[in-house]
Design goal:
Radius of gyration of chain C: 24 Å
Number of domains of chain B: 1
Strand content of chain C: under 5%
Number of strands of chain B: 0
Oligomer: heterotrimer
Largest interface: B-C, 48 and 53 residues
CATH architecture of chain B: Orthogonal Bundle
CATH superfamily of chain B: MetI-like
Structural class of chain C: mainly alpha
Number of helices of chain B: 10
Distance between the termini of chain B: 15 Å
Helix content of chain B: over 70%
Shape of chain B: elongated
Order of helices and strands of chain B: HHHHHHHHHH
Radius of gyration of chain B: 22 Å
Distance between the termini of chain C: 9 Å
Shape of chain C: flat
C-alpha cells in the first residue's frame, strides 16, 4: 500500500486557502459554516479534510469552485496558482471549473442527469472547453472510461446512468471530472455511499490518477480511515474551524488537539485494535459449558419475487425474476452474546432480520427461539414471541412516527400490552428514558426536534419497553457520526450487561463489528460465507471473499510498527 | 403555533373564506329583502343606492341574490368534497396498505373512471338522474372519490415501508390499527391541500351546471343560474352577469389560497 | 426493455379499460328511470312499434345479452339513433366533430407556447416582480369560471370593441379562426394557470438538483444548463398533467360551445340532454372517453421516448 509521490518543496502551493469564512443567510440569522480556515495543497499532493457532519468541510470544498448558493457570503482568499478565485466573475470562474479544478460528489446517482447518456455527460466538458466535435469527444470519452477502470467503455458510453451500479456511476463522474486534464480534483465524500469493496477500488483509482497524471486531490470525508488510506496530509475540521493539520502519520500517532484524539479514539478500528490486546472475558470461566442457544436459524431461504411483466408471461419466461434474498443460511446465537452479521448491500443480512421478526415468511427452513419453531406461532404464543424479540433500525428519523412525541412512541407499547397502568405509565416511560441516557425533558419533543443520536435512543427505549430478551440492531449506527456511534454502541453494551440482552448486530462496517461483537457471520449474496469468533474471522479470514472484505476496509495506521495489511 | 408563523396566503385565504361564511350564514339578517321578490317597477336597474348591484330582468335585487346564492355555493364546496374525500381515503388506504384484491379492483376502477373527462361524466350522470343539487352531489361523489383514492394510495405505498411502520409491525399491532393510527395521519397532508383545489373545481362545476340549467333550479338563486339569466341582457345590463361571476371568483380564491397556504405551511414543517 | 415492448404492454393494458368504458356507457342508459323504449319512440307510438324497437335493440333480453348486443353494435359502428334528429348518431357525431376538434386544437396551440414561455420566465426570475405577477395571475386564473369569462369577453371584445364575432363557427378557415378565437382564449385562460404552476414548480425543483451543481462544476454555462438539463427534466411531470388536462379540455368545450353557440359536439351533448336524446349522450360520452385514452397513450409513448428510465 504505497503512498503517492510527495512533492512538497519550496514552490508556491497549487491551492492556498487563507482565512476562508463562509456564512449562510437563513431565517434564524446568519449561520457561520466556515469560520476562518487556512490550508494549502501542493502539486501532486493528496490532502484530506476530515470532520463530522456540520463541520463545514463540504462547504469549504464547494467555496473553492464558487459552487455555493446565492445566500452564502464568502470572505478570505482562495489562491489557485497564485491568483485569488474568490469574488471573480462567473466567466472567469467557468474557465477554471472543469478545466483546472474539478469536483466529484458523494451521491453519484443524483449527480448524473438521468436523461442524458453517460458519454454525453463526459463529452459536455470536452465540447465546451475545447470545442471538440462529437466524434473526437466520443473517442476521447471512451479512452477516459478505460482510464477510470470501466471494463466495457463503448457500451457504457452509450448507456444511461440508471443502468450502472453505484461504483460505476462514480467512475463515470470521475471520468467527467478528469476529462479536461485538471490540475486539482476536489472529492467530496466520494465513497460514503458505496460498499466497502467498491470504496477500496475507487480509492485505488484516485491514488492511480494522482500518480499517473500528477493530479492533486483534496479528499473530504468523515471517516479518518478512508483519509488515512491515500492522503499524505490531513486537515482536521470541527465547527467551521481547523483544529489541527499536518502529515497523516504525525496526526494519527501523536494528535495534539483533544478533538482529534476523540476522532481517533472513536474509530472502531482503533478500539478493535486496543481490545485485541486485552483478553476478552465473555464467558464465566467457572462455567464448563457454553450458554444455551437462544436463537437458531436453520437452512433459511427467503425469496423475493419481482413481478413478471405481461410480455414475459407471453414469452414463457420461466425465470420470473425470483431473487433469492437469503439462500440456505444457518447459524446459532447464544444467550447473552453479541453476534454480528456483516455483508455488503444485497447480501441478505437485513432480510434475515425480517425473517426472524416474522415480517417476511421464509420459503424454506426454520427459525427456532428457545428451541421452539416460530413458524406456526399464534395468539398468545405469538404475542410472547413479539415481546421477546425486538428490533432497532438504521435511519433515526424514519424509525419514529413523525407525529408522535417521545413519550407517545415509548408509551404506546406499554399501553397496548398493558405493561403499565395508565397512572404508572409516565413513570415507566421516565425509567426507560433514563435507561437509554435520554434526558426526560425531551419527552414532549417530536423527532424533528431531536438529534440523530437521540432518535436512536428513543428507538432503543421503545424496543426495551417490551422487555425483550433478543434485540436485533440493523445498521443502527450507519447514519450517525463517529462520536455518536461510539456512544450508542457503549449504551448497547451496558444494556446487555444490565438487563441480560442478547444482541444480533447487523452492519457493513467491519471495524465496528470487530470491536463490538463476539462472534460474526459473513454474508454474501444471500449465503453465509464464514462464521466464527470475531478475531479469527476478521484477522485471519479463511475464505477468499472475507479476505477481500477485510483488505478493503480502511485501516488506521498508527506507525510503522503496527502490522499493516 | 402562533398566527405569525403561518404563511400569508393561508391567512388571506382563510380570511376571505370566513368572510363569505359569515355573510352567507347571516344573510337573512343582513339583507332585508327577499331574494326572490319580484319587482316589476325596478326592472334592469343600474347599480344605485337602493340596489347596490342593480336589479335583474324580473326586478330582483342582485346583491341579495348574490349573498343568498353564496350559501348554496359554499355548501357545494363542502358537500361536494367531503363524501368523495372520505370514500376515496378509505379505499386508497385499504388498497395501498393491504394490496390484494382491493388494490386490483381499485386500479381497474380508477383507470376506467379517469378515462372519462370529469365534467362529461358528471354531466352524463346528471342527464340520466335528472337535474338538481342532490343529483349533482351524487354524480360528483361517484366520480370524484377516485382522485382521492389514487392520491392516498400513492402516499401510502411510500409510508408503509417507513421504518416506524416496520417497528409497529414488529411490536405486533393489529394491521388495521397500524393502518389507521400510524399510516393514515401521515398521508393526510397532501389530501387536505388537494381537497381545497377540488372545492374550487366543484364550485365551478356546480355553477356551470347551474348555468346550463341542469343544476340548481329556478327560482333559487345560484351564481351560475344568475349568470345564465343575465346572458341575454349582457349588452345592456352587464351587471347581472358581472357580480355573480366576481362572487364565484372571490370564493374560489379563498379556497385556493387556503390550499396554497396549507401546502406552504406543511412543506415548511417538513 | 425495448421501446416497442413498452408500447405493446401499454396497448394491452388498454383493452380492459376499453371494456370498462363501454360497460359504463352501457350502464348509463340503463340508469334512466322509466321505460327506455317509450323514451325512444315517444308516448304516442303504437304497441307494434314499441315491440319492434324493443327487439331491434334487444331491450327485452337479460342485461348481459344486452351488453353484448351493444358491444356488437359498437364494433359495427352503430351507435344508435337520435330521436331528435332522426339520424344515426354516428352521422351526427361526424358532422359536429370537426368543429370541436378545431376548437380543441386551437386551444392547445394557444396553451402550450404560453405555458412554456410563462413558466420559464417565472422560474428564471424567481422571487422577482415578474414571477410574482405570473404566479398571482395563475392563482386567479384557476378560480375563474370559464362560462363567465366567456360571457364577459364576448361582451367586451365582441360587442363593445367589435373585434370578434360572439357566436357561430364561420365558413372559411380564417372565418373559423376568427369566430373561435374568443372561445379558444376563454378555455386557454382557464387551462394555462394550472399548467404554468406545475411546470414552474418542476423547473424550480430541477434547478436545485445535484446534477446541475455537477454540471456547473464542469464549467458549463448557466444558459446551457437550463435548456439542456433542467428543462428536459422538468417536462416529464408536466407532460402527464397535460394529458389529464386534455380530459378537462373536453369538459371545457362543452360549456364554451354553449356560451358562444358553436355547433360542435359539446353543444350537441347539452341539447341532447334537454331533449332526452339518450343515445346521443351515451355516444358522445363514450367518444370523449376514447379520445382521452388515446391522448393518455400518446403521452405515455412520448414519456418513454424522453425518459429512458420509464419501465412497465
Amino acid at each position: 500500500m504505497g503512498r503517492s509521490k510527495n512533492t512538497q518543496g519550496t514552490t508556491t502551493p497549487l491551492l492556498s486557502v487563507e482565512n476562508l469564512e463562509v456564512a449562510f443567510d437563513s431565517v434564524n440569522g446568519k449561520v457561520h459554516a466556515v469560520r476562518g480556515m487556512s490550508f494549502s495543497v501542493g502539486e501532486g499532493e493528496i490532502v484530506g479534510i476530515v470532520g463530522e457532519s456540520g463541520s463545514g468541510k463540504s462547504v469549504a470544498c464547494r467555496s473553492v469552485l464558487g459552487l455555493l448558493p446565492s445566500y452564502a457570503s464568502i470572505d478570505g482568499q482562495v489562491l489557485f496558482e497564485g491568483s485569488n478565485i474568490i469574488g471573480q466573475h462567473e466567466d472567469e470562474l467557468r474557465k477554471i471549473r472543469g478545466k483546472q479544478i474539478s469536483m466529484i460528489f458523494q451521491n453519484p446517482a443524483s449527480h448524473l442527469d438521468p436523461l442524458m447518456t453517460n458519454g454525453q455527460q463526459i463529452g459536455e466538458a470536452l465540447r465546451y472547453h475545447f470545442n471538440q466535435d462529437s466524434r473526437k469527444a466520443r473517442a476521447e470519452g471512451i479512452e477516459l472510461l478505460k482510464a477510470v477502470g470501466i471494463t466495457d467503455p463503448e457500451q457504457t458510453f452509450d448507456a444511461y446512468p440508471h443502468q450502472l451500479s453505484g461504483g460505476m456511476k462514480q467512475r463515470v463522474l470521475i471520468a467527467c471530472a478528469i476529462a479536461c486534464r485538471p490540475k486539482l480534483l476536489l472529492a467530496d465524500e466520494p465513497t460514503t455511499a458505496l460498499d466497502v469493496t467498491v470504496q477500496a477500488r475507487i480509492l485505488d483509482l484516485l491514488r492511480a490518477l494522482n500518480q499517473d497524471r500528477n493530479l492533486s486531490i483534496v479528499l473530504v470525508s468523515h471517516d479518518l480511515g478512508v483519509i488515512a488510506e491515500i492522503c499524505q496530509r490531513v486537515v482536521v475540521v470541527h465547527n467551521g474551524l481547523i483544529v489541527e493539520q499536518g502529515k497523516i502519520e504525525d496526526i494519527v500517532s501523536t494528535p495534539k488537539h483533544p478533538y482529534t484524539q476523540m476522532l481517533i479514539d472513536s474509530q472502531p478500528a482503533v478500539k478493535a485494535r486496543k481490545s485485541c490486546e486485552k483478553p476478552k472475558i465473555e464467558l464465566d470461566p467457572e462455567l464448563s459449558e457454553q450458554p444455551p442457544n437462544l436463537l437458531s436459524v436453520e437452512n433459511l431461504r427467503v425469496n423475493s419475487r419481482t413481478s413478471r411483466g405481461f410480455l414475459d408471461f407471453l414469452r414463457h419466461r420461466k425465470t420470473s425474476g425470483l431473487v433469492r434474498a437469503v439462500d440456505g443460511v444457518s447459524f446459532k446465537v447464544r444467550q447473552g452474546e453479541i453476534f454480528g452479521i456483516v455483508g455488503e448491500s444485497g447480501s441478505g443480512k437485513s432480510t434475515v432480520a425480517l425473517a426472524i421478526t416474522k415480517l417476511v415468511s421464509p420459503s424454506e427452513g426454520q427459525v427456532l427461539f428457545h428451541n421452539k419453531s416460530i413458524m406456526e406461532l399464534r395468539g398468545d404464543e405469538l404475542t410472547n414471541y413479539r415481546r421477546s424479540v425486538q428490533m432497532v433500525f438504521q435511519n433515526p428519523y424514519d424509525s419514529l412516527n413523525p407525529r408522535f412525541t417521545v413519550a407517545q412512541t415509548i408509551g404506546e407499547p406499554l399501553l397496548k400490552y398493558s405493561l403499565a397502568t395508565k397512572t404508572k405509565c409516565a413513570d415507566r416511560i421516565d425509567e426507560l428514558m433514563e435507561l437509554v441516557d435520554l434526558s426526560i425533558d425531551l419527552r414532549h419533543r417530536r423527532p424533528r426536534q431531536l438529534s440523530g443520536g437521540q432518535c436512536q435512543r428513543v428507538g432503543i427505549a421503545r424496543a426495551l419497553a417490551m422487555k425483550p430478551e433478543f434485540l436485533i440492531a440493523d445498521e443502527v449506527t450507519s447514519a450517525l457520526d463517529v462520536s455518536i456511534q461510539a456512544q450508542i454502541l457503549a449504551l448497547l453494551e451496558r444494556l446487555r450487561d444490565k438487563i441480560n440482552l442478547t444482541i444480533l448486530y447487523i452492519s457493513h462496517d467491519l471495524a465496528v463489528v470487530q470491536m463490538f461483537c463476539q462472534r460474526v457471520a459473513v454474508f454474501r449474496a444471500g449465503r453465509l460465507v464464514e462464521i466464527g469468533p470475531v478475531d479469527e474471522v476478521l484477522t485471519r479470514p479463511k475464505e477468499k471473499y472475507t479476505q477481500t472484505l477485510v483488505n478493503s476496509a480502511p485501516q488506521l495506521h498508527f506507525s510503522a510498527s503496527l502490522p499493516a495489511h | 403555533m402562533s398566527l405569525r408563523n403561518l404563511p400569508t396566503t393561508l391567512i388571506v385565504g382563510a380570511g376571505i373564506f370566513l368572510m363569505w361564511l359569515v355573510v352567507a350564514l347571516c344573510s337573512p339578517l343582513l339583507m332585508g329583502t327577499d331574494p326572490n321578490a319580484l319587482n316589476f317597477e325596478a326592472l334592469l336597474q343600474r347599480p344605485n343606492i337602493n340596489h347596490l348591484f342593480g336589479t335583474d330582468h324580473l326586478g330582483r335585487d342582485i346583491l341579495t341574490r348574490v349573498i343568498y346564492a353564496g350559501r348554496i355555493d359554499i355548501w357545494m364546496g363542502f358537500a361536494g368534497v367531503l363524501p368523495a374525500l372520505i370514500i376515496g381515503t378509505l379505499f386508497g388506504l385499504m388498497a395501498g396498505y393491504f394490496g390484494g384484491v382491493v388494490e386490483a379492483v381499485l386500479m381497474r376502477v380508477t383507470d376506467v373512471t379517469v378515462a372519462f373527462p370529469f365534467f362529461v361524466l358528471v354531466l352524463a350522470i346528471v342527464a340520466v338522474l335528472g337535474p338538481g343539487l342532490t343529483n349533482f352531489f351524487i354524480a360528483i361523489a361517484a366520480v370524484g372519490w377516485v382522485s382521492y383514492a389514487r392520491l392516498i394510495r400513492a402516499e401510502v405505498l411510500v409510508v408503509k415501508n417507513a421504518e416506524y411502520v416496520l417497528a409497529a409491525k414488529i411490536l405486533g399491532y393489529h394491521p388495521l390499527f397500524i393502518a389507521f393510527r400510524h399510516v393514515l395521519p401521515n398521508v393526510l397532508a397532501p389530501i387536505i391541500v388537494y381537497a381545497m383545489t377540488d372545492a374550487v373545481l366543484v364550485i365551478l362545476f356546480g355553477a356551470s351546471l347551474g348555468f346550463l340549467g341542469l343544476g340548481v333550479q329556478p327560482p333559487t338563486a345560484e351564481w351560475g343560474v344568475m349568470i345564465a339569466n343575465g346572458q341575454p341582457y349582457v349588452t345592456e345590463a352587464w351587471w347581472i352577469c358581472l357580480f355573480p361571476g366576481l362572487a364565484t371568483v372571490t370564493l374560489g380564491l379563498g379556497f385556493s389560497l387556503i390550499g396554497d397556504g396549507l401546502a406552504k405551511h406543511l412543506r415548511i414543517k417538513n | 426493455m425495448q421501446r416497442y415492448q413498452v408500447i405493446l404492454q401499454r396497448l394491452l393494458h388498454l383493452l380492459p379499460v376499453l371494456f370498462g368504458i363501454s360497460l359504463v356507457s352501457f350502464l348509463l342508459v340503463q340508469l334512466i328511470p322509466g321505460d327506455p323504449v317509450r323514451l325512444l319512440v315517444g308516448p304516442r307510438a303504437t304497441e307494434e312499434v314499441v315491440a319492434a324497437v324493443r327487439e331491434r335493440y334487444g331491450l327485452d333480453q337479460p342485461l348481459l345479452q344486452q351488453y353484448l348486443t351493444y358491444l356488437g353494435n359498437l364494433f359495427q359502428g352503430d351507435l344508435g339513433q337520435s330521436i331528435v334528429y332522426r339520424k344515426p348518431v354516428g352521422e351526427l357525431i361526424m358532422e359536429r366533430l370537426p368543429r370541436t376538434l378545431f376548437l380543441a386544437i386551437y386551444v392547445i396551440c394557444i396553451t402550450i407556447p404560453s405555458t412554456i414561455f410563462l413558466a420559464i420566465t417565472a422560474a428564471r426570475h424567481q422571487g422577482r416582480k415578474i414571477d410574482h405577477i405570473i404566479t398571482t395571475s395563475a392563482v386567479f386564473g384557476i378560480t375563474i369560471p370559464v362560462f363567465w369569462l366567456g360571457i364577459m369577453m364576448a361582451r367586451l371584445f365582441g360587442v363593445e370593441f367589435g373585434w370578434f364575432p360572439v357566436s357561430g363557427y364561420g365558413n372559411t378557415f380564417f372565418g373559423h379562426l376568427h369566430h373561435l378565437f374568443l372561445p379558444a382564449l376563454s378555455t386557454a385562460i382557464w387551462m394555462v394557470p394550472v399548467l404554468v404552476r406545475n411546470l414552474r414548480s418542476a423547473i424550480l425543483e430541477q434547478m436545485e438538483a445535484d446534477y446541475v451543481v455537477a454540471g456547473r462544476s464542469k464549467g458549463l454555462p448557466e444558459q446551457y444548463l437550463f435548456y439542456y438539463h433542467i428543462l428536459k427534466n422538468s417536462i416529464m411531470p408536466t407532460l402527464n398533467l397535460f394529458g389529464v388536462m386534455v380530459a378537462v379540455l373536453f369538459g371545457g368545450t362543452v360549456i364554451v360551445e354553449k356560451v358562444y353557440a358553436v355547433p360542435g359536439l359539446g353543444d350537441l351533448m347539452i341539447s341532447s340532454i334537454f331533449g332526452r336524446d339518450y343515445f346521443v349522450v351515451q355516444a358522445i360520452t363514450l367518444f370523449f372517453a376514447v379520445v382521452t385514452i388515446t391522448v393518455t397513450l400518446a403521452v405515455d409513448i412520448i414519456s418513454t421516448i424522453i425518459d429512458p428510465r420509464v419501465k412497465l
